[in-house]
Automatic annotation (TrEMBL):
Annotated organism of origin: Youxingia wuxianensis
Gene3D superfamilies reported for this sequence: Aldolase class I
Gene this chain is encoded by: rpe
Taxonomy, superkingdom: Bacteria
Its biological purpose: Catalyzes the reversible epimerization of D-ribulose 5-phosphate to D-xylulose 5-phosphate.
Lineage: Bacteria, Bacillati, Bacillota, Clostridia, Eubacteriales
Pathway info: Carbohydrate degradation
E.C. designation(s): 5.1.3.1
Protein known as: Ribulose-phosphate 3-epimerase
Family designation: Belongs to the ribulose-phosphate 3-epimerase family.
Reaction(s) catalysed (UniProt annotation): D-ribulose 5-phosphate = D-xylulose 5-phosphate
Cofactor dependence: Co(2+); a divalent metal cation; Zn(2+); Mn(2+)
Binding-site list for substrate: S7, H65, G141, F142, G143, G144, D175, G176, G177, G197, S198
One Pfam family per UniProt: Ribul_P_3_epim
Listed HAMAP family: RPE
Residues binding a divalent metal cation, per UniProt: H32, D34, H65, D175
C-alpha cells in the first residue's frame, strides 16, 4: 500500500498542531517526526516533549525517525511519549537486537534505517522482526537535499529479500529528496512509504501536493 508521510522538519514549528492537522485533512497517511541529537547527525531538531504534545493533539500515526547515537536509551522513551513506530539507525552505537526488543516491549512498531553508504544486507538478519525498513536517499541531518537515485538498487535488493522470506506486507520507506520528479523511481524500485518534507510543507496547497505525489508515484506503473 502506497503511503505518504509528511516530515514535520519542514513545517512551521510555531503552528505545529495545525501543520499536522492540515496534512491529515490533505489526505496524508502518517506523520514523520525527525529526531536529531547533534551527535549522530550534525543537526538538532526536536525531542520527547514535542512528541508527547503531538500525541495529545492528533490521532495521526506518528512515525518517529531517530537520528541519534543512543536509541537503546531513548527509543523506549519515545515509545512512551506516544510514537506509534520507532525507527532507529543500524549505524547507531546501540546493539540493534536490544533496541528492537526494547521498542517491542513497549507494544510499538519498530523499523531500522540505513544511511546511504550502508549495504542492504546489514538489515537482513533483522527483517523478520521489523515493521519497516527505511532507506535514506540523502545523508541524514537536513531537509531539502537532492534525492540519491543510486539508492534504487538498494530498495530493489531489500524488497526482493522480503519477498524471498515471505514478508509480503513489509513497509519499505524512502526518506530524502522525494518530490514529483523522484517518487516514481523509488516506487518502481520497491518503496511504498514516501517521506516528503520540503515537497509538501513547501507548497501552498497541501491537498494538491499530497494528491500530486500519489499520482506521480502511480505513474510509474
Ligand atoms: O530524515 C530526514 C533528513 O535527515 C528527512 O525526513 C527530511 O526531513 C526529509 O526532507 P526532504 O528531503 O523531503 O525535504
Ligand atoms: Co526522516
Amino acid at each position: 500500500m502506497l503511503k505518504i508521510a509528511p516530515s514535520i522538519l519542514s513545517c512551521d514549528f510555531a503552528n505545529l498542531g495545525k501543520e499536522v492537522n492540515d496534512m491529515k485533512l490533505a489526505g496524508a497517511d502518517l506523520i514523520h517526526v525527525d529526531v536529531m541529537d547533534g551527535h549522530f547527525v550534525p543537526n538538532i531538531s526536536l525531542g520527547l516533549p514535542v512528541v508527547a504534545s503531538l500525541r495529545k493533539s492528533t490521532d495521526m500515526f506518528l512515525d518517529v525517525h531517530l537520528m541519534i547515537s543512543d536509541p537503546l536509551t531513548y527509543g523506549p522513551q519515545f515509545a512512551d511519549a506516544g510514537a506509534d513506530m520507532v525507527v532507529f539507525h543500524i549505524e547507531s552505537d546501540s546493539p540493534p537486537q536490544a533496541v528492537i526488543d526494547a521498542i517491542k516491549s513497549k507494544g510499538k512498531k519498530v523499523g531500522i534505517s540505513l544511511k546511504p553508504k550502508t549495504a542492504a544486507q546489514e538489515v537482513f538478519p533483522y527483517l523478520d522482526q521489523l515493521d519497516m525498513v527505511l532507506v535514506m536517499t540523502v545523508e541524514p541531518g537536513f531537509g531539502g537535499q537532492k534525492f540519491m537515485a543510486d539508492m534504487c538498487p538498494k530498495l530493489e535488493i531489500i524488497r526482493r529479500e522480503c519477498e524471498r522470506l515471505g514478508l509480503l506486507t513489509m513497509d519499505i520507506q524512502v526518506d530524502g529528496g522525494i518530490d514529483n520528479n523522484t517518487i516514481a523511481a523509488a516506487y518502481s524500485a520497491g518503496a511504498n512509504v514516501f517521506v516528503a518534507g520540503s515537497a509538501l510543507y513547501g507548497k501552498p496547497d497541501y491537498k494538491k501536493a499530497v494528491d500530486e505525489l500519489r499520482e506521480h508515484a502511480r505513474s510509474a506503473i
